[in-house]
Structure formats: structure tokens, C-alpha cells
Amino acid sequence: MAESVEFGLNDADLAVQPTIYGPGAYAGRTVLISGGAGGIGRATAWLLGRLGAKIIIAGRSAEKLAQAQQAMRAKGLVVSTHTVDIREPSSVATLFGKIASDEGGIDILVNSAGGQFPQAAIDFSTKGWNTVVNTNLNGTWSMMQQAARGWRDAGRPGSIVSIVVVTSHGLHGVAHTVAARSGVIGLTRALAVEWAPLNIRVNCIAPGAIETPGWNVYDPKAVEAYPRSNPMMRSGTTWEVAEACAYLAGPGAAFVTGEVLNVAGGSQLWGETWTIERPDYFKV
Q: What is the pLDDT of residues 4-17, one digit of tens each?
């Protein structure tokens, strides 16, 4: 039996990772993070919480949310949780209604929820395709629209950061998420213009090969090759994405909207990433 490998930073790591931001940089701000119980979302929750933000993490699993909340509260972070299925617009509407009544609204939305599975596109089932697109595109849109409506109605500014993927170079074996995340990028650019009069900024972060617990679902040979998918010849960390999010979501990026910030070691310029075994045709 193959040895189990633990990928990514755990709570103990996230509690002590160094940051370039000063204490209190996010004091007075309330941040909603979908998918906040795992991977990039969890790292972002830890960072912005450590910087003084009030954190709301949302996701489908109440158990995972509670575990993340307990770990963060143990270090003095202010964290609340809400369950939501972003694929269901009614669930998203209920989430924002609860937040408005319980928390008084939010200042920042980080769309980190998402999911996909590695498979050759020719073998996708209709259900598999629709599930990924409904989560990664439609679910992200529902969160964005509900957040923007709340800010518009309250007459307050807002900031949205959506986690996508690097689409300008080779990411293979997850064509469904490439399609969905490309949709989020296009949507972001359109909304950045439409929502500018509302003082709402909308941006994306496109991570490259970032080590997360989700790597366990990928082909081991593919994972072994990830560090060679970019010219820096290494994998990134969820903390590095969180640091980028702290910039893009906050006042330091007040004049930035409609952008995609690649946190990918340059993989958007060079290299390729296969989440499935590379076909013999492409082996050199």
C-alpha cells in the first residue's frame, strides 16, 4: 500500500506563518470566505483573521467549518460559520440574509469554494460536467450578485476576490474547471465596469501549482511533476495565495479592478500542468 502523504499547510503552520502586513491591517472589516474550511480559503481566513478582520467562513460541511472555527478561535481570531451550498441560489440568498441579520453585512467577499476532479474530457459525464460548472461558475456568480445587491442597498463599498485557475497556458485534465473559471474571469471583467459606479471592486487570483490537501485526488505522477510546471521550479503555498488576496481585497489595491493576479511562479508564461497522466503523444 502506498504511503499516505499530507499535502499543504495545517492550522499550526497557518497560525505562525510570517506576513508582510502589519497587525490590525484588516481591523474593522468583515470578510466572508466561501470554501473557508480548506486549502486556499482556510489560509486566507487565517491571514485576514490574524490581521484583525472578523471572519465568516462558509461551506457545505458543518463539521469541517466547526473544526476550522475551533482552531482559529483557539488563537484568538474572531470567526463565525454558516453552511451554504453555492450551487443553489436559494441557499446563497439564505446565507446573505443570515449574515445581514447576524453580522450586519460584509465588506469583502472571497470566493474560494470550488471543486473539480481530474479526468480526460472525452470521458466526462453530463452530471460531472454540470456539477463542476454549477459550483465553479454559477455558484460564484450567485455569491457575487448577492454581495453586490447588499452593498448597493446599503450604499456601502465592497470588494470581491474570486479564486480561479491559470487559463493562459496549459492546464490539462480538468477541462470542466478551465471552462468554468474562464467564465468567472470574463464575468469579473464585465462586472468591474458595471459595478464601478457602486464603488464595488471585482478581481481574480489565479493560482498555479499550489500545494493543498486536495492534491491527494490527483495522479501521483502528475503531482510529482507539478514543481516543473513553472520557471521557478517549485510549488506554491496556500499562504502565498492568501498574501496576494490580502493585497487585492484590501485598501492597498483601491485603484485595481477587473484584474487577474497570477500567483503561479510564472506558469502562465511557460510550462504545462497535467492533473492526469500525460498522454504518450505529448511525452518527449
A: 556 789 999 999 99
